[in-house]
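Subject: Sanity check before I submit

Could someone independently write out the structure tokens for this chain? I want to compare against mine line by line before I put it in a report. The sequence has 84 residues.
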Amino acid sequence: MRTEQWALTIATPVGPQHGTLHLRHTEGGWEGEATSDDQTMPLSALVRDGNHVTWTQQLMRPIHLTLKFDANSAEALRQLPLSV
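---
Independent answer below. Compare away.
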């Protein structure tokens, strides 16, 4: 199993929100979760293709939301260690 961690910063109306994506590649594809200071949220519809990642995530606080993300980051892939 291959694992990766991506640092995540999301621009929001109340200021930047920081977290970490924890990604795992298994025989069935990619899976993972996003963590922040006080929450761990599973990722669904996760697709990783090179430096491009898309996923959907359910937020429970401060309100219930379903968010869809589309992210690119060649810089993150160069800086974060990958473990296999």
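---
OP: Matches mine. For the report I'm noting this point. The two ends are 6 Å apart (CA to CA).
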